[in-house]
Write a structure and sequence with these properties.
Length: about 300
């Protein structure tokens, strides 16, 4: 009588298998999906999962980034490099293009542009007729994200209603949508920040340099460190110090990346993924709590932005 040995899967193996299953469900149910790729750590994980789900074939969807025009150069350069390495199509649409069309109007020149990505995203969905956007959002990031389904439905106006979402019993995912409606799929919804870093470590994934400890000029602003005199692609600088602000050069790293005007670093000497994993395990500050200043105002709350079409 033979003995059957059951292979034991690790926690990361289960998360990976679930995410791959979701990606294949999207490919099977949707006609024109797109994967949102910013060059950040969560979307980097999505690319590896897509490789495991579909290689050696091409991805059954293009990549797309909604660029605020104020993204960190290191992250944008990494985005382009990674897409080229994979040989996948990368679509870039910019909030600045929406500003030129008049569909986005800033209250001031230094207003954070993150929330305005919703407009550009909805315009891009209409342009390419995408019926599903695959994103790297996780439920542990923010309370509004915890209300999302894996397949999160958006109506014909691109709006999200947290009280009108489809049930997902027994991990059955419904991606059906009428023309004009849209699905946001979140394959790593059940992952945590720690899971992401452990997966990056296990898979040996390359990252933009700003995730690791480095020296940077900062000022204290709004209870957080803000990077100052950050160069943009056109040679200009952003986040110029205000009168009375003391510029300090500190050893910092970024836990999350977004618009330069609202994404703050944290003090850290973690210069490797292993050190970041240890730091993540011991920190008492949430990932977005002290690093994404746009989440901390009621006007730009995550739930309100999501209702308006945000990722």
């Amino acid at each position: 009588m033979s003995t059957l040995t059951r292979q034991t899967l690790s926690h990361l193996d289960w998360l990976e298998a679930e995410a791959i299953h979701i990606l294949r469900e999207v490919a099977g149910q949707c006609e024109r999906p797109v994967l949102l790729f910013s060059g950040g750590k969560d979307s980097i994980c999505l690319l590896r999962l897509a490789e495991k789900a579909f290689r050696p074939a091409r991805f059954p969807f293009p990549l797309m980034h909604i660029d605020t025009g104020h993204n960190y150069r290191e992250v944008v350069d990494f985005r382009d490099k990674r897409a080229a390495e994979l040989g996948e199509r990368l679509i870039v649409r910019s909030v600045e293009d929406s500003m030129k069309r008049g569909t986005v109007v800033l209250k001031s020149a230094d207003e954070p542009r993150n929330k305005h990505q919703s407009v550009t995203l909805l315009e891009s969905i209409a342009e390419f007729e995408f019926d599903c956007c695959i994103g790297g959002a996780r439920r542990d990031e923010e309370k509004a994200r915890a209300k999302e389904r894996i397949m999160s439905f958006r109506d014909e106006f691109g709006q999200w209603d947290p009280k009108n979402q489809r049930p997902e019993l027994w991990n059955l995912y419904n991606a059906r949508a009428h023309r004009g409606e849209n699905i946001r799929a979140f394959p790593i919804s059940n992952w945590t920040e720690m899971d992401v870093w452990q997966y990056i470590e296990r898979e040996g994934l390359e990252l933009p340099s700003i995730y690791f400890a480095h020296q940077r000029d900062v000022v204290m602003r709004g209870g957080a460190m803000m990077p100052v005199n950050v160069p943009l692609a056109d040679g200009s600088v952003i986040n110029v110090p205000r009168p009375g602000e003391a510029v300090e050069n500190r050893l910092v790293r970024f836990r999350t990346v977004g618009d330069i005007t609202c994404t703050a670093p944290v003090e850290s000497d973690a210069d490797s993924v292993t050190k970041i994993v240890i730091e993540t395990a011991t920190t008492t500050i949430t990932e977005r709590g002290a690093t994404r200043l746009d989440d901390q105002t009621s006007e730009a709350s995550m739930e309100q932005r999501k209702k308006e079409g945000y990722f």
